[in-house]
């Protein structure tokens, strides 16, 4: 449940998406790619993702090994969601 809580927070999935490539991103570049995220929210989410060992920071922000594994799972969930057809109310 802790992971789902973290993933459900605003901007978290977008940050993971923008870090999908192996290229490290600076804070400023990541903020630009996440159109409209405030610097305080981005800093908070990056700290939370770092504490969860999903994002690392050395010469820029990147997904950790666990973060890359999670991203692979999210891609499969996205593929499933593309075919999902919720029942229409009668």
From TrEMBL:
<dbReference type="InterPro" id="IPR002577">
    <property type="entry name" value="HTH_HxlR"/>
</dbReference>
<dbReference type="Pfam" id="PF01638">
    <property type="entry name" value="HxlR"/>
</dbReference>
<keyword id="KW-0805">Transcription regulation</keyword>
<keyword id="KW-0238">DNA-binding</keyword>
<protein>
    <submittedName>
        <fullName>Transcriptional regulator</fullName>
    </submittedName>
</protein>
<dbReference type="InterPro" id="IPR036388">
    <property type="entry name" value="WH-like_DNA-bd_sf"/>
</dbReference>
<feature type="domain" description="HTH hxlR-type">
    <location>
        <begin position="1"/>
        <end position="89"/>
    </location>
</feature>
<dbReference type="InterPro" id="IPR036390">
    <property type="entry name" value="WH_DNA-bd_sf"/>
</dbReference>
<keyword id="KW-0804">Transcription</keyword>
<dbReference type="GO" id="GO:0003677">
    <property type="term" value="F:DNA binding"/>
</dbReference>
């Amino acid at each position: 449940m802790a992971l789902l809580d973290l993933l459900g927070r605003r901007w978290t999935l977008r940050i993971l998406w923008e870090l999908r490539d192996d290229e490290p991103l600076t804070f400023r570049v990541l903020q630009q790619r996440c159109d409209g995220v405030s610097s305080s929210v981005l800093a908070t989410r990056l700290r939370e993702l770092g504490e969860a060992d999903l994002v690392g920071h050395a010469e820029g922000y990147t997904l950790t090994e666990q973060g890359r594994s999670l991203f692979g799972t999210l891609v499969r969930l996205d593929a499933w969601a593309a075919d999902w057809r919720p029942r229409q109310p009668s």
